Amino acid sequence: MSNEAVLHAHEAAVHQVHGDHHEHHHHETFITKYVFSMDHKMIAKQFLITGMVWAVLGGLMSVLFRIQLGYPDAHFPWLQDILGKWWVQDGRITPQAYYALVTTHGTVLVFFVLTAGLSGTFANFLIPLQVGARDMASPFMNMLSYWFFFTASLVMLSSMFVETGPFSGGWTAYPPLSALGDASPGSKTGMDLWLIAMALFVISSLLGGLNYIATVLNMRTKGMSMTRMPLTIWALFFTAVLGVLSFPVLFSGFILLIFDRNFGTSFYLSDIFVNGVGALPNEGGSAILYQHLFWFLGHPEVYIILLPAMGMVSEILSTNARKPIFGYMAMIGSLFAIAVLAFLVWAHHMFVTGLNPFLGSIFVLLTLLIAVPSAIKVFNWLTTIWRGNIRFTPGMLFAIGFVSLFISGGLTGIWLGNSALDIHLHDTYFVIAHFHIVMGVASMFGMFAGIYHWFPKMYGRYLNNTLAYIHFWVTIAGAYMIFWPMHYEGLAGMPRRYYDYSIWESFKQFADLNRFISTIAIIVFATQLLFLFNFFYSIFKGRKVTQQNPWNSNTLEWTTPIRPGHGNWPGEIPEVHRWAYDYGKDGRDFIPQTEPIGADESHH
Amino acid sequence: MMTAMSTNEQKRIHPHKFTLWVGIGSICMMFAGLTSAYIVKRNQSNWLEFDLPVSFWYSSFVILLSSVFMHLSVKSFKAREISRYKMFITLTASLGLVFALLQWIGFTALGNHGIQLLGQGSNPAASFLVVIVCLHLLHVAGGVIALLVMLIKAYSSRSKNYSSVSIEVVSTYWHFVDVLWIYLFIFLNWIK
């Protein structure tokens, strides 16, 4: 079925599909163009900007709880004036607010920023452009996907304003804390809103994921075989597969949780005594059951966050090193291996839940196996830029930063993957350091790389380079200064999620270190505002793009007009004759995918 | 352009059909999650064993029959026998409703036998049955709604539609929901 049929499905009854040209003269109103848009490029921008709003809110939350951790004795009366009594009392973040902040920071960053904001943005933007399609397989479902996400955002945001506060039992929402309204103030209305928001979010991801898969497999242009696709598309494809297979399992976990909360069932609850309420009648449930269902999503989720960044980094490194990607097939193979292994390692989050040690050892083996494809990818990235003719564009710097962070964070993953070491390290700051570097900051770097690289395609203007370089250097230095010291704290046994470490004899020694980390966190957060300014200023006032292909890149998105309309290509969709990585071949700097193989050309 | 384009793309499956298949995979994962949770929970203490109500047997027969009608309605659509198509599609949707009714009767029968399904004192075994069966029922309801939409389309004189894509998509979904129930029925009968 052709691209045209999909794009014109809604108007096919009205008029015949027109002849040779594809100039569209839709009468677009503000509402159909910017709000309920079905153009994948506009939906991508909607995802991006919503994600950025959440990144600011989530980042601000981390600044607030870092203030508590870094300055436990200080009083900030002005914070109380801004946030109100529930959040701040006597100029100090309240314990209830601290847990609410930690929980919401985690939920928002993992799901709303690094899932919706990252793969929502770039899958929508890049898949049709890079495979040569006029739009997604179902533009309408694509629009629904965004609006489900938007509604989920509103519900999650509204939970900040309820009287009992947002949910505060950690982003994993383990029962019984999440299942019993009497367990804590945050488990009342806040948890209901959290569950509704997450259910809507799952629907949004599924609608999006279905579309991404269908588009990649069905809507590629002529000549675009699977092995000619840029690695971005491969990564986004595997991301979508992971999401489509793992989010439903999380959903079933949530359904059981909803029944336990609201219909008195005992799936997760057994023999519980709540202070002030007394013994509960629930019997026969298992709280560990939830953990299995949660982490069956939860671990693939890590790769849902990481794979898009990996794909974009591969593309950006190759383009800006002016060299073909090293080991294209190995890159695809390792993406595939990671996608498969993602489903087989969930119990490494549960080593100390009383898991059978023999079973644990199997999960150790499978977990450590992930090091193999990860190492292949790192090797290939390094060999791609090795002796390349590197252009240090901001996008390239963030891509290199990603590789650096992925190595640093990946190495500690080998520690944590061992069930024996995990007895000491689980739930300490070592874990915080590990996953923030390898998943959080690394993926943020992938996202920044993507934004800097594709901003000219998105808005027809460039971002300011000076601001971008300041943004990069402060952020990479800050990321290491924030998370590196946390490894030492974790090795010393400092547990995560505590409200105040200054009252613990064992952890008093870290008071200065915690203050250092908090100070850097505030500086890094302030630097992100610089990026925000750059982003929004450049949309309207940035330097205009005058060349169709500003990075001299091979992929199809740069064959569209500088500001492509709905349908992407004004004429025929170009035909593809080669893979995406013919850089520095036969004495030529780059050969776009649309150029036929020459007679005297060495065969790839 | 359409013809030139479709010559080399004719072999490819329609994107909407393909999307449905991926969606089916997704629904399968949800029920795989629930049924594996069921197995895990069953192997732990405090599991109530009971027989499935008789009306679940009838409902299985009804949904199988509805699939036959579904198949016949696609055949008549392709043969351009629109009145037969309308009849079969109505029959299919009605059987979907009968299926829902029979499930309801089944749960009432369980309740009459003193098996508490939800609320204080309920056993996870019974609650699991409610969650799994009702979630499946929701998917059947989705199918019935899709069939009603098809019926309205067939009756509306404003647009004439000769493409069988939408009815094929609905039919694939309906057969899937049928097969899913048969799987669940065997699973729940066998492992209890």
Topology:
The complex is a heterodimer of chains A (604) and B (192).
Chain A: H1 3-7, H2 30-35, H3 40-70, H4 77-83, E1 88-89, E2 92-93, H5 95-131, H6 139-158, H7 189-218, H8 231-262, E3 273-274, E4 278-279, H9 287-321, H10 328-341, H11 357-369, H12 371-385, H13 394-416, H14 419-425, H15 429-459, H16 465-491, H17 511-541, E5 583-585, E6 588-590
Helix pairs in contact in A: 3-5, 3-6, 3-17, 5-6, 5-7, 5-8, 5-9, 5-15, 6-7, 7-8, 8-9, 8-10, 9-13, 9-15, 10-12, 12-13, 13-15, 13-16, 15-16, 16-17
Chain B: H1 2-9, H2 15-42, H3 55-78, H4 82-112, H5 124-155, H6 165-190
Q: What do these coordinates show?
A:
The complex is a heterodimer of chains A (604) and B (192). Chain A has a two-stranded antiparallel ribbon with strand order 1-2. Chain A has helices at residues 3-7, 30-35, 40-70, 77-83, 95-131, 139-158, 189-218, 231-262, 287-321, 328-341, 357-369, 371-385, 394-416, 419-425, 429-459, 465-491, 511-541; strands at 88-89, 92-93, 273-274, 278-279, 583-585, 588-590. Chain A is globular and about 80 Å long. Helix content of chain A is 60%, strand content 2%. Chain A is built from 17 helices and six strands. With 604 residues, chain A is an all-alpha fold. Chain A has a single domain, classed as Cytochrome c oxidase-like, subunit I domain (Cytochrome C Oxidase, Chain A), CATH 1.20.210. In chain A, a hairpin with a 3-residue loop joins strand 3 (273-274) and strand 4. Chain B is mainly α and 192 residues long. Chain B has one domain (51-190): Cytochrome c oxidase, subunit III, four-helix bundle (Four Helix Bundle (Hemerythrin (Met), subunit A), Up-down Bundle). Helices cover 78% and strands 0% of the residues of chain B. Chain B has helices spanning 2-9, 15-42, 55-78, 82-112, 124-155, 165-190. At the A-B interface, helix 1, helix 7, helix 8 and helix 9 of A face helix 1, helix 2 and helix 5 of B.
